[in-house]
Amino acid sequence: MLNLILKDILIQKRTIIFALLYGVFIFFAFSKPPFSQCIYSMGAMGISYILILTALQADFKNNTMVILNSLPVRRSEIVASKYLSMFVFIALSLLLLVIVGFLITVSPLPFDVRSLELYDLIITLLSVSILLSVYLPVYFKTGGKLVQIVNVLFFMFLFFIPSTVLDYFKENREQPVVINLIQYFSENVSQVYLAAVILTFIVLAVSFTCTLKIYAKKDL
Amino acid sequence: MENILEVNNLSKKFKGFLLDNVSFSIPYGYIMGFIGANGAGKTTTIKLIMDLVKKDGGEIRIFGRDHQHYDREIKQKIGFVYEECYYYEELSVMGMKQIIAPFYQDWDERIFQQYMERFNLPAKKKIKELSRGMKMKFSLAVALSHHAGLIILDEPTSGLDPVFRDEFLEILRDLLQDESKGVLFSTHITTDLDKIADYVCFIDKGKIVFSGVKDEILGKYVIVKGSKDLLTEESHKLLIGLRENEFGFQALSNDAARLKSQLGDRILLEKADLDDIMLYTTRRNREDA
After folding, report:
1. Dihedrals phi, psi of B242, to nearest 5 degrees
2. Residues of A with Cβ-Cβ distance to B104 under 8 angstroms
3. Which pTM was predicted?
4. Do B235 and B193 share a structural domain?
5. Which residue range forms the structural domain that includes residue B106?
6. B112 and B55, same structural domain?
7. Which 3 state secondary structure label does DSSP give A216?
8. Nearest Cβ partner for A62 among B53, B88, B95
9. Within this chain, do residues B181 and B259 fall inside the same structural domain, yes or no?
10. Is B73 within 8 Å of chain A by CB?
11. Helix, strand, coil share (%) of chain B residues, nearest 5
């Protein structure tokens, strides 16, 4: 299992450099509020997504899944490793952003970077998990054929949803629903976080079970 | 005699293709050549053995154990070479080895390095920059570097030049000095098998035509030639892949004695090689279809 996760990192040394550049870019592009609020989550989402996607594409591109399945590993391990490597990639991308953020803070650049907060981690976890939970069953079912569509949807999601949600809240800040929601959120922070984490794991568990079933029967 | 690989009544249905009740076995210490035309079912059978494709029915036992139930233990001891190159093309030869090696408990770096040297493999070159023959050599080096018991080769020689092909066959022969090993070697180049195979299994259109000791099979089949007026209704049944022209007929038969008694001494019998057997049989089955 560990070998499989390690493999996902080893096959994309170059992507990690690209992800680093993306991390730097995101700090410059989203340095001002309201975007600076979600700088870590958006950055980590983007980076983990690039890393996860590159690893998956490498496995399916040359049908390397045939080799992996010929090695002494179970199919369930191959599936599980993909879900587990997601956590590794999220951790890796947040670490990367923290380092970049720190470097910017100590550098003479004219802007400040806030430090990483718990909610950054939770938002990243939730959003990457949901995307991957849709993505992985499709990947294992079609061998990477339908993923282009999922890709397009993802990038629309990445670029439009956060700003749409923010705009909605800004425009309707007088509405009672919004006021109540914000009030509830700010009063029950830990419950909301907990709910988000539980939701994440439920989604992942359902997706994992589906992917396992799909892949167990798949002819390579 | 104990078998290193046993396939019993294996079946698998695809759209437009049926692998039908395939059975054969390889005893410990021997090489089996697995022959058949393209699309006959060789690769499918190999994929079923490796559990890459899920069987519909039947049983596969490797080292005496069920291939699905003991999949991990079994695959530790299988070396495989496939016709296509499925490696990460962007990685270097060494990079790819570094990924594969940790999966095997018995990975032997010393042996791997020996093969790298023997095959002149460039460690730093990317997989995608390798020629087809080089890729094959790399696959072979990987397959032979973890003390595998069963070596499964799917059309390994199709991209190799004659010189290396010979060396490759030599390596296999050396390997089989160790009687705890076995090789399944699929190919449509039957001359490879003349030199090294002990057993031959012939598959056509998803069905096993025969499977057994190579020399016995070669001893059984003959090419029959003669003039057309010799052909009787009865003799037709003994002839495989019959071809007639204005001068006479030519066919394959696996019952020379009966043919002789039916047609007398006026027919000409010649030894058939594996290519002849494959050619005539495939021809017959095509005409039946």
Report:
1. -65, 130
2. 71-72
3. 0.87
4. no
5. 3-215
6. yes
7. helix
8. B88
9. no
10. yes
11. 40, 30, 30
Nearest-angstrom CA–CA distance, B86 and A187: 54
Burial class (CB in 10 A: 0-12, 13-18, 19+), A174: exposed
SS3 content of chain A, % helix, strand, coil (to 5): 85, 0, 15
- Residues of A with CB below 8 A from B80's CB? 70
Whether B71 and B157 share a structural domain: yes
Would residue B289 count as lying in a domain? no
Note whether B29 and B118 are same-domain residues: yes
Closest C-alpha to B251, from B267, B265, B234, B229: B267
**Inter-chain contacts counted by CB atoms under 8 A, chains A and B:** 69
Place of tokens 């003799």: B235
Facing B82 at nearest CB: one of A6, A10, A66: A66
Residue of A nearest to B75 (CA): A72
Q: Angle at CA B170, nearest 5°, toward B105 and B211? A: 85
Q: pLDDT tens digit string along A86-95?
A: 999 999 888 9
Q: What is the mean pLDDT of chain A?
A: 84
- E strand or H helix at B199: strand B199-204
How many distinct structural domains can be found in chain B? 2
Chain A residues in contact with B97 by the CB 8 A cut-off are none
Task: Decide: A47 and A91 in contact? Cβ < 8 Å.
Answer: no
Please give the span between the terminal C-alpha atoms of chain A, in angstroms, as a whole number.
20
Question: What are the tens digits of pLDDT across the range B211-245?
Answer: 999 999 998 899 998 888 877 777 788 888 888 88
User: What tokens were used for A55?
Assistant: 């690893």
